[in-house]
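Entry 14. Ran structure prediction on the chain below.
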Amino acid sequence: MPYYRAVGELPRKRHVQFRRPDGGLYAEELMGEEGFSSDSSLLYHRHLPTAIVKAEAVTPVGDTRLEPNLPLSPRHFRTTELASAGDLVSGRILLAGNGDVRLSYATSDQPSELYRNSMGDECVYVQEGTARFESTYGVIEAGPGDYVVIPTGTIHRWVPRGRVNVLAIEAAGHIRPPKRYLSQYGQFLEHAPYCERDLRAPAEPLLAEGEEVPVLVRTRGGLTRLVYRNHPFDVVGWDGYLYPYAFNIDDFEPIVKKTHAPPPVHQTFEGPGFVICSFCPRPLDFHPESVPIPYNHHNVDSDEFMFYVGGDYSARRGSGIDVGSISLHPAGFTHGPQPGAVEAVIDAVARGVTTTSEMAVMVDTFRPLDLGQGALACEDPGYAWTWSR
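Output, structure tokens:
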């Protein structure tokens, strides 16, 4: 993260004696990226964070097979047809992925077990419902439109309040705000579409009691369930630049031009080999002769994965796209508005329409996306031919 936070009880200096009320020492845990060469936080535990009493291999739940997008085709998936058999972690249905990122959908009303992803950061977008996100850093209350960014190695769990639908973006590295939004010292710049005030992080410690507590751990070698001697939610204080946080899509401030602006103006986060963009309600392009709708485009270096989360997508009318849809437009295919959409929007502007209500989360990848079995199970087989109608 680009700025410093301190939560709970802390000693005056790092790596000095910090004693519990009974006179014993709190146990330090440094959570750091890139071998002590990047962002980190220092956490103070009541018990040793290293004390495990059992370890067992775990067989993955769900179908994790990926297939190439062959024959090359634009795709449309209807997530409303998917039902998870588990929680917001174990019930993830793999939609697409490559060596950089895995994209999954989950819907559940069940609390997850404690979980640690040691392969990379996660960004979980909450489409519908509310949930309490609990971690060693504290609590974040998450609701519709929230991106919850979870650093690699964070022990956490999800506790839904009723049914919650999410898109889980699992990176093979770290997810951060785009560098062009930040000063050389890490402060958000004035031209950035959001800033530090828009980010919500845990405000106080979360303390839990318990012994022999299981934690599901994902590594590059597979899944392991470690049993900790004491509950890992025993941190009395932490400080640093590395912690989970939430950002709501409604706080994204769209950048507009006289004529239609390309997707990079919607970029919200960047990861290794991919970017995440937020398409939000905004004023329509205001040049008197503008075409206020996306032009046909072919991003030769990217696959475009678009999750439609709200509003009215006039550019896609007639394609079958609706809220809950996901479109995949791969490199090698030129895509754009549906036939007749350009004329319809120009007519609407002439009648006084000045804004668009569309909302979507887009992931652009720089390596081809393979298809998960979950996506193939809810595919609209006629989508590719809708531009020819």
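Helices lie at 341-350, 373-377. Will compare against last week's run tomorrow.
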